[in-house]
Write a structure and sequence with these properties.
The complex is a heterodimer.
Chain A lengths: L9 H19 L6 H23 L7 E3 L7 H25 L3 H24 L3 E3 L4 H29 L7
Antiparallel strand pairs in A: 1-2
Helix pairs in contact in A: 1-3, 2-3, 2-5, 4-5
Chain B lengths: L1 H19 L4 H24 L3 E3 L3 H26 L5 H25 L2 E3 L4 H29 L1
Antiparallel strand pairs in B: 1-2
Helix pairs in contact in B: 1-3, 2-3, 2-5, 3-4, 4-5
The chains are: A mainly alpha, B mainly alpha.
Keywords (chain B): Membrane, Transmembrane, Transmembrane helix
Keywords (chain A): Membrane, Transmembrane, Transmembrane helix
Amino acid sequence: MFTMPVHFDENEWFILIVLSLLVVVFWLMPRKMPISLSILIMLFFAFLGRIADFVLAFEYPLNFYDTMDTKNYDLFDFITYSIIYPLYGYFFADLYYRWNLKGLYRIYYIIGWIFLSLFFEHIASLLNVFHYNRWNMFSSFLAYIVTFLIVIFFLEQIKKWYNREVGKFKDV
Amino acid sequence: MVIVGILLMILIGVCILWKINKLKKLEIAAIWLLIPIIIHDVAVVTSNLKIIEIAKNTEMYLSFVMIQILLLPLLLILFFNTYIDIRSVPIRTIISLCLVGILLLVEYTFEWAGIITYKNVNLWASFVFWLLTVFVLSMFQQFFLTSLYKEV
């Protein structure tokens, strides 16, 4: 099954604290986005996290970084990919639709999330969630630019499909 | 050569899907995203347990990624297109079992091509895995469709 942590220390605590905070905020936040879109967005982030780390961090061919205590896929990796990334993505999408940003504001929003992600990643790397081999924060910066552009494209696309197939999506 | 074959299969699959598709795009997106998640977790866990080994060769590795994110989702979405109009449970079961057979064949073809190497796997383990995957996906598709109709 999943590899268990070698030592239950700062990286596992960090994951558990972030997880609890995200779940609490998700629980308290008024939900205005349709369930189907919420599911799609969460699936998309669960997918993106797994595929990105599989390509960038798997022992072959790139192995740019490792996560948590071992090189293997451990229980806390699973929690990160399955709950933390989807909830983080959900908040990004919820605010994006809620504020219905246009033009420059949309760019500022993306830049804001890129720096927020870099900030969280920096804390995570200090707490040994990430161990960089041939990776650094600048690589992450470039990766986040690409990632958030893909995410925006996906959000616009599913909104269009929702309008066509379900027909009542309003900006929340 | 292996990667060209996979690309060709994906291309043919997309053309067939283009012609026969009856699913909503949102439905396709949801199923398409869930399949690589399942395959990824099973592949990584079985790789942790040294049950399978993913080839350490760029072409084979890229082939594995393409199978995971494109070919298998495409195959299963084509299946859901045949499944959608059938209401009879026995016929659905037969079609599901046929699909499991096809997925097993595909899996063993990839093993034969050298994309994955089995260390300690038997046919039954693969059969159970694919059967469960098809079952979980069918349940998920029903759930997703229901939530979509509630929003109409």
